[in-house]
């Protein structure tokens, strides 16, 4: 899987992605870069600072980082590589797209397709959540834009969330606004973060929160000026890294394993449930209307 290209340069490739160690220089720091072998088509960019062990994973799936099958797969592969890489100690998740962290699941993956497609898509959504929520290394979400539904879920899987202080950005599980339902593991992730009553109201109304409101309910841990989101995430990561790794990791697992195990015990049933739910005429109609609303918003 890994090959040494020249001194200090390691290449790990899988699918369309490559991992180059020491192949990129950013300022004075030697970095690892994961990028596609066809850079123009790469949906993420990862830089690993070998001096600190901190990787920054930037989502760059135009226009709005919506989570389609390819994008989810690419994120998963990169996370797996970083998890196996002993020089990586923590991952900061952020966006390279302006104003958007992630628009959530790509609605087009859930609209007008066949059951096989829905099943494959949902499996990849499960996969990314299982990978991130059960991730052994430290993860911090540097939320530099709006983050509805699946985007919020990605942020919720992190050990710490830092959001840009811009009232135009919102975050939350807004599924009911689309006429769909956040599945139990989305719900559990939210509940474990904000508590039962807040999660109950939040899920039923499909509430989206401004950064200051998200901070009030502990949906995010910190709100900072936009230009400081990444530097604050790096500082916070350093604090996490100061804790003995095995103790932190076991504590994280202790908190999260029951929820992870719950999905693991019924993955196939959960996929069946999703396929049957999303294939319903009434649900397809709701999604169609929501998509039209998104288009009309522009005109
Ligand atoms: C018994 C049952 C029990 C349990 C249930 C069982 C199973 C579960 C079932 C279902 C669960 C599904 C869970 C779903 C999770 C999701 O994540 S759904 C997606 C939710 N996302 C949203 O609602 C976001 C919608 N988008 C926006 O609000 C805005 O676009 C934005 C704030 C992200 C960005 O705003 P702008 O910058 O103004 O950009 P535009 O609005 O112009 O968008 C640009 C372009 O992108 C398209 N788009 C936006 N979001 C999405 C998306 N999520 N998917 C696909 N496409 C998206 C938008 O239409 C524009 O397209 P064009 O007009 O340029 O073609």
Describe how the helices and strands are arranged:
Elements: E1 2-6, E2 9-14, E3 17-26, E4 29-36, E5 44-49, E6 54-59, H1 69-84, E7 90-95, H2 115-133, E8 138-143, E9 147-148, H3 150-156, E10 160-164, E11 171-172, H4 184-194, H5 196-205, H6 211-216, E12 222-224, H7 229-241, H8 245-264, H9 267-278, H10 281-298
Parallel strand pairs: 6-7, 7-8, 8-10, 9-11, 10-12
Antiparallel strand pairs: 1-2, 2-3, 3-4, 4-5, 5-6
Helix pairs in contact: 1-2, 2-9, 4-5
Ligand LKXGUNVN binds next to helix 9 and helix 10.
Helix percentage: 40-55%
CATH architecture tag: Alpha-Beta Complex
**DSSP strand (E) fraction?**
15-25%
Give the H and E element order.
Answer: EEEEEEHEHEEHEEHHHEHHHH
Which ligands accompany this protein? ligand LKXGUNVN
Low-pLDDT runs? 1-39
Distance between the termini: 49 Å
- Please give the largest β-sheet: 10 strands, mixed
Number of continuous helical runs: 10
CATH topology call: 2-enoyl-CoA Hydratase, Chain A, domain 1
Backbone shape: globular
Q: Reading side by side through the largest sheet, how are the strands ordered?
A: 1-2-3-4-5-6-7-8-10-12
Number of strands: 12
Reading off the top of the CATH hierarchy, the class is best stated as Alpha Beta
What does the average pLDDT come to? Answer: 89
Counting helices, strands and paired strands, the structural category is alpha/beta
Rg, alpha carbons? 19 Å
The CATH superfamily is 2-enoyl-CoA Hydratase, Chain A, domain 1
- Overall domain count: 1
InterPro entries: ClpP/crotonase-like_dom_sf, Enoyl-CoA_hyd/isom_CS, Enoyl-CoA_hydra/iso
Pathway: Lipid metabolism; fatty acid beta-oxidation
Organism: Bagarius yarrelli (Goonch)
Main location: mitochondrion
């Amino acid at each position: 899987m890994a090959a040494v290209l020249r001194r200090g340069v390691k290449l790990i490739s899988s699918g369309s992605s490559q991992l180059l160690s020491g192949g990129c220089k950013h300022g004075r720091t030697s970095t690892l870069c994961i990028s596609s072998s066809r850079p123009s088509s790469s949906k993420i960019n990862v830089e690993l600072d070998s001096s600190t062990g901190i990787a920054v994973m930037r989502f760059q799936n135009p226009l709005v980082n919506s989570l389609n099958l390819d994008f989810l797969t690419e994120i998963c592969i990169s996370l797996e590589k970083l998890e196996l890489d002993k020089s990586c100690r923590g991952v900061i998740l952020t966006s390279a797209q302006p104003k958007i962290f992630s628009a959530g699941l790509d609605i087009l993956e859930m609209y007008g397709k066949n059951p096989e497609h829905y099943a494959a898509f949902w499996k990849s959504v499960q996969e990314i959540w299982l990978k991130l929520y059960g991730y052994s290394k430290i993860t911090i979400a540097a939320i530099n834009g709006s983050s509805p539904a699946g985007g919020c879920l990605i942020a919720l899987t992190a050990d710490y969330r830092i959001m840009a202080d811009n009232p135009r950005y919102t975050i939350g599980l807004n599924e009911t606004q689309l006429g769909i339902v956040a599945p139990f593991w989305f719900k559990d992730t939210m509940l474990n973060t904000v508590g039962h009553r807040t999660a109950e109201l939040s899920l039923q109304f499909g509430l989206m929160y401004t950064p200051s409101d998200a901070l009030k309910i502990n949906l995010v841990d910190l709100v900072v000026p936009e230009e400081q989101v990444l530097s604050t995430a790096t500082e916070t990561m350093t604090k996490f890294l100061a804790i003995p790794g095995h103790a932190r990791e076991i504590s994280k697992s202790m908190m999260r394993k029951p929820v992870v195990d719950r999905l693991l015990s019924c993955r196939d049933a959960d996929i069946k449930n999703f396929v049957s739910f999303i294939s319903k005429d009434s649900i397809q109609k709701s999604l169609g209307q929501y998509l039209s609303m998104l288009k009309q918003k522009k005109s």
